[in-house]
Structures are given as structure tokens and as C-alpha cells.
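Hey, resending since the last one bounced:
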Amino acid sequence: MTLAITGATGQLGRLVINTLKTKTAPGGIVALARALDKAADLGVPARLFDYDAPETLAAALEGIDTLLLISGSDIGRRVAQHGAVIAAAKAAGVRHIVYTSLLKAPHSTLGLAAEHVETEKLLAASGIGHTVLRNGWYTENYAMGLPAALEHNALIGAAKDGQISAAARQDYAEAAAAVLLDAGLQGKTYELSGDESFTLAELAATLSAQVGKEVPYIDMPEADYAAALSGAGLPADLAGFLAHCDAEAAKGVLFDEDTQLSALIGRPTTPLSKVVAAAIG
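The C-alpha cells again:
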């Protein structure tokens, strides 16, 4: 069986490949990437794969049995990109696609959700066997802002006391690897999230405990948070998107009580304290 990973040089793709290499022969793993030079250190065969060059995709998928389609990062263009990959997979004879979707996508109010829902529909209509991994939030989405919180002595956000059932990126990578390697886990839709939820105030408290000083959480209106992020140098579109996600988190959109992720990976999901420690070095 030959496995292929799209977005192989991205943060999730790299972790999936590294996890797979501990469980199966590297020669049976193919990295699919836009830039082959960035895939040189992965230790597996690599093929050029650009979502925006659909005429080239089927040839790159020749001989692939199972494909991990990691959702693209170009918000607003992903349905067309994913559709091109699915069509190419069908033309190349790929037998199974594993897709990284969004937690509770059909019911989510996040702006990200619609493209995931449409991609899931394309998969259902394709006739190709498929598995949907509806990934919750990555803990790193918040942890990456902790150095700045330390610098300014405050963690800011707009999530109020919303519970966030996040998990580490490595947890999601291990779940993807498990599904790719075990046909008995395929053909299903998984809602994946962390075992334990936290609020941003609890994140700030965890940070405070680890650095030995109080770093408070300051909750802000969505528009003010977006303005603060923009003032810190983020592009306006990205700042608005992040503020929107926080505002939806305040409504419980990122909360989930299921334990399908820990069941897939055979261990508890990574504790918040461990991700915080890694983020602040």
C-alpha cells in the first residue's frame, strides 16, 4: 500500500509523515508538495503537487492507494482546490481519501465551515472511499501568542469564558496516521477534539503558573480585539478572522465532549500545560 500526504511540508503534514515513518516503511509514503526543495528533509519520496495546477495532479497520484487530503490554507479558494484533488484522485485510481475537515462542520458557525462542508459533499459524490477527520482547534493556535502575552504582560482575546476543546497538532497527526494505516478505521466521520477544555482565562493562569508571575487574561469586544491584532502588525483580514473565531468560541463553537481523538491515538490528548511549556521554551 502506498500512502500520499498533501501539504506535506506544512506543520500538520510534516508531523503526519514523521509519525508514519515510525510505523511503516518510508518507501511507501509519498510527500506531495508545491516546492520539492522544502520536502528534501522529509526522508520519503516526494512529488510536485500544486492545488492550483489541476492538470498536473492526476499524474502525481499515479500508484497511490490512500491519500491524505490536508485542507488548503487559501480560504475562499479551497472548494475548487479540493475538488481538483478529488477529481484527480478518481482519475488516478486512488482507492481511499482521508480528509481533514472541521469539528462539527455542518453545524459550525465558524467562517471556515462552509468550505469544509462543500468538500465533504464532493467526497460523498465522488464514489471514492473516504474518511473525514473533523479536527477541532489546535492548542498551538493560542499557544503561539504566549510569547507576546509575556512581553506585554497580558493575554488578550474575545472568547469570554467559552470552553475550547483544543488538542495539540501532534495529536491530530497521530490520528491521521492511525486511520491511514488501518482499513478498519476508514469509511467513517470522526469528531476530534481534546479530552480537556479550557477558557482563555485558564490558559493565562497556566502560563502564569509556569513563569511565576501573573499574566492576566483581558477579554475584549470582537472589533477591539481585531483592531489590537491589526495594530500589532497582522494583516487586517487575518486579524478579523482570528477575532471572529474567538467570538464564536465564546458561544461554545469550539467545545466538544467527545473522546474520539484519544481513542484513535490510544492515549490521552496532550495536556495544555505541556503545550504552554513548549511555546515559552
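Strands lie at 3-5, 29-33, 46-48, 66-69, 96-102, 129-135, 155-157, 189-192, 217-219.

Sorry for the duplicate.
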